[in-house]
Design goal:
The structure holds two protein chains of two kinds. By secondary structure, chain A is an alpha+beta fold. Helix content of chain A is 26%, strand content 20%. Chain B is mainly β. The chains are: A alpha+beta, B mainly beta.
């Protein structure tokens, strides 16, 4: 079990899990633990010779047992592929998997938040290059989401409206829009903290993955794929990113939110990265050296 | 000077009030079949397969 330590100044939990120091680190492709097991070779995490989408408990979890769960989501058996290279139909299947895990993990005792994310690229700190995402079922609501929920609740109290719906209203002009259809939008928010940060979100108010109807899921899959393809065309490299899904905490009576997916690519050019340094890490104040309107136009044109 | 500390400063418009009823969660036919197996060390593995 991890040691959960309270940070009294920031009023947030720090999770101490020393065994993660020994986790698998950049194995060669023929020793990838996320590939299907090939006949005559060592067994991987997935013993069968093929799979469509597979989910398993992380071997080096930050949360397990009474504390929560950590899962690995293998998007595809194809080691050299990526999320953005999957078909829209396959991404719709993946959305079903994310919904299934949201529902099931949300019912686990002590779980207060189900967080779906992907780290892509060595620049982000990825230790396995096989296309995969992760799910953390936390025993607490993590600080960034907590912050968003408080802002949402305050805005709802003072205006009666959803704060993210109002953010989306501000995108009607389209100058920060990257992709849009009848139901979803991909845009660089005016308050982006990374040069090529993008949010994708349903235009209709949806609190979480479990609230998406068939039209939402179809549109989500298309916009997600389109956005990831644009990212890889941006510098003609598989663009590193963190993909973070923000949704309401589990339970029907819990606080409301507006489901959205945030992307933080660290690149500010093809070969230059933005690092979190003195202002960002030491003071929590992001300095971004790009205009959202410019980066949105650049992404839109790809 | 900061333009505003309001994250939604570009968007606040009293005329944009909308009805935000939460959609009813409808049970729909699943696209995938779910098969759960236990690994040798006790961890679970879930195969999501085409139905």
């Amino acid at each position: 079990m991890s040691d959960l330590r309270w940070h009294p100044l920031l009023e947030e939990w720090v999770t101490v899990a020393p065994w993660r120091q020994d986790r698998t680190y950049l194995p060669p492709p023929d020793h990838c633990p996320l590939c299907p097991t090939r006949p005559g070779h060592l067994e991987t995490e997935i013993p069968e010779p093929d799979y469509h989408i597979a989910v398993f408990e992380n071997r080096f979890p930050s949360f397990t047992g009474e504390q929560g769960r950590c899962e690995v989501v293998c998007y595809t058996p194809d080691h050299d592929s990526s999320l953005g290279e999957q078909s829209v139909e396959h991404i719709k299947d993946l959305i079903e998997v994310w919904r299934d895990r949201t529902e099931e993990l949300g019912r686990v005792r002590n779980v207060r938040y189900v967080y779906i994310f992907e780290n892509r690229g060595e620049a982000i700190g990825v230790t396995l290059s096989h296309p995969h995402g992760q799910i953390y079922a936390y025993p607490f609501v993590p600080p960034v989401v907590q912050h968003e929920l408080r802002a949402h609740a305050r805005h709802r109290r003072s205006t009666g409206r959803c704060i993210y719906c109002d953010v989306l209203d501000g995108e009607k002009g389209g100058e920060r829009t990257v992709l849009r259809d009848e139901h979803w939008i991909a845009f660089v928010p005016p308050f982006a903290r990374w040069p090529y940060e993008v949010h994708i979100a349903p235009l209709r108010h949806r609190a979480g993955l479990l609230d998406l109807d068939g039209e939402d899921r179809e549109s989500f899959a298309r916009i997600l794929k389109g956005m990831l393809q644009k990212y890889d065309r941006l510098f003609d490299i598989p663009l590193p990113y963190v993909m973070a899904m923000h949704q309401k905490p589990p339970g029907r009576s819990g606080p409301d939110h507006h489901f959205h997916v945030e992307f933080y690519p660290p690149n500010r050019s093809r070969d230059r990265l933005k690092y979190l340094a003195g202002s960002e890490l030491g003071a929590g104040a992001f300095i971004v050296d790009a205009l959202a309107e410019d980066t949105a136009a650049e992404l839109r044109g790809l | 000077m900061p333009r505003s500390q309001n994250a939604n400063a570009t968007a606040l418009n009293p005329e944009s009030v909308r009805v935000m009823s939460r959609p009813r969660r409808v049970k729909e036919p699943k696209r995938l079949r779910k098969r759960v197996v236990e690994k040798a060390d006790g961890r679970y593995l879930i195969y999501f397969e085409k139905g």
